[in-house]
């Protein structure tokens, strides 16, 4: 199973590269369908062999880190925690959840509640309940 967050991230990266039409999704679907033929061959590759590819993905994502306002704790702390939790928990979704929990809380502690939205508070509440009731 792939989390829906991962699908969203992959879709966003496709948009950033210029894929704005439905044709991008169609080509991707066709390539995924064709990849079914190669599953027996690909399953022979051990999972640790994908590490170099994941490192390259991380390297390609690092330039975005420059855009974070590191001088604002309400933005830098959630960003740092998101970046940290993803590899430690082996879950993109859990990393994003921690960031989405800490961002509105820190904005509230700074007295800048007006800089958040009700959606952020709803997401933070849902993720807090998820961690409290279901576990990480």
Distance between the termini: 16 Å
* Structural domain tally: 2
Query: Roughly what is the average pLDDT, rounded to an integer?
Result: 84
Which band does the percent of strand residues land in? under 5%
User: Helix count?
Assistant: 7
Question: How would you explain this protein's 3D organization?
Answer:
The chain is mainly alpha-helical and about 140 residues long. It folds into two domains: about 1-45, no CATH class; about 45-135, no CATH class. It contains seven helices and no strands. The radius of gyration is 18 Å and the shape is elongated. The model has no long low-confidence stretch (mean pLDDT about 85).
Question: What is the secondary structure topology, with strand pairs?
Answer:
Elements: H1 4-16, H2 22-35, H3 39-42, H4 51-61, H5 73-89, H6 92-109, H7 118-134
Helix pairs in contact: 5-6, 6-7
Quick overview of this protein structure:
The protein is an all-alpha fold and 136 residues long. The chain has helices at 4-16, 22-35, 39-42, 51-61, 73-89, 92-109, 118-134. It folds into two domains: 1-44, no CATH class; 47-136, no CATH class.
């Amino acid at each position: 199973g792939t989390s829906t967050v991962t699908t969203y991230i992959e879709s966003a990266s496709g948009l950033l590269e210029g894929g704005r039409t439905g044709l991008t999704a169609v080509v991707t679907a066709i390539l995924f369908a064709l990849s079914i033929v190669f599953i027996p061959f690909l399953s022979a590759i051990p999972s640790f062999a994908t590490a170099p590819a994941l490192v390259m993905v991380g390297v390609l994502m690092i330039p975005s880190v420059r855009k974070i306002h590191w001088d604002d704790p309400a933005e830098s702390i959630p960003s740092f925690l998101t970046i940290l939790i993803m590899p430690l928990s082996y879950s993109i979704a859990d990393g994003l959840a921690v960031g989405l929990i800490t961002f509105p809380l820190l904005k509230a502690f700074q007295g800048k509640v007006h800089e958040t939205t009700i959606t952020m508070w709803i997401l933070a509440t849902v993720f807090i309940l998820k961690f409290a009731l279901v576990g990480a």
